[in-house]
Fold this sequence. Notes:
By secondary structure, the chain is mostly beta strands.
Amino acid sequence: MDRRVTPHSGRVALEALRGRVEAEAFVAGEAGAVAVPLVDLCASPGGARDRQVVLGEPLVVVERRGGHAFVQMGKDGYCGWLEAGAVGPALAATHWVAARGTHLYPEARVQAREMAALPFGARVVVLEEDGRWARVAGGFLPAMHLRRLGDWCDDPVAVAEGFLGVPYLWGGNSAAGIDCSGLVQAALLACGRDCPGDSDMQARMGAPVAAGDLRRGDLMFWKGHVAMVVDGARLIHANGHSMDVCHEGIEAAIARIAAQGGGPVTALRRV
Length: 271
């Protein structure tokens, strides 16, 4: 099984895996949510970052150990370890942050000193809204930066272009730093479409498409890399060459990646 999407910590597994894996204990799991703006989801407690998750995203806790929690994320099934303090109770979120980023303020006043930065995609419970400000637990957010859950965007490419210039970060999932699969996932989730977290998983989405029939929003894959088609000549991707999110000519990208040893395009998919 792929450990990235298998809710088995090495010691404890979810009950659904009984009979399929060996574990010291099987549990029903504890529903929760990410309780901090942004946190690394790691392959081991305090270990290497696999991905990042953001405030309000639902999860299931499989095991708690030594100041860390092994969880499975609700958005894509990805599993890994979070710092225990980053896990909070389940949240009946009402809205999501649809701006590239926003700030939490202690009062509904532009001049107030911000208390926290919330990333794109963060989920919150709006308690009250007056048109300009939305009151949430602990403070106020600019209402124009929020959308109701279910009020999705309609163009993944336009969402991805909102990240232009964001620095490349392996495993990153925010405007503080993002990688190729993180960009694609953010763009598709914002449009209400399911999307896994890594490019090899994303290469199994949708249906194959011919090179001569590429459309806006189609995905192009290389070994370990994914980009999104903007139009007949350009793509957008977070990449380790320019170290940011940028537009690049499709033919130029194909030639450059091949020349740098990244190989040919391995798949074209329409989602």
